[in-house]
Amino acid sequence: MKAPTFAELMNHPTVMRALEQAWGDSLPSDPAHRHEVGGWIYMNVATGEITVERAPSGTQAFLDLNNPPHLIGSIVVGIFHTHPNPTDEGWEPGPSETDRRTDALHGVPDLIRADNGVYVSGPDCREGGLQGGPGYP
Length: 137
Description:
Blueprint: H1 6-10, H2 13-25, E1 38-44, E2 50-54, E3 74-82, H3 97-106, E4 110-114, E5 117-121
Parallel strand pairs: 3-4
Antiparallel strand pairs: 1-2, 1-3, 4-5
């Protein structure tokens, strides 16, 4: 068994449902209330099952994904979050410089849903594979 790649996560129904649910919950059409939403993607090391855990909602342009919850028997293999601010208002849809720096530290793929599609930041798959602790590698 190996850690899933960005492409495998993008094709996983559990991950895509979570990403689309997060997009709707981030209220992208509501300028006064839009906010980033996301969470962690886990893989059970015994069964290979992929699950997700949502983080507390963020602000208009910030979400804290630094402290993933510990799930017994599972490790973090990715994260996801939304960029609900519209590109037609001049917002950058893809990964911000902060996203890139944080994703490099976390060592897992980051799927980012924006109004014009899904972007990725960070490595192609969990650094170090399935080795290490249950959180970030």
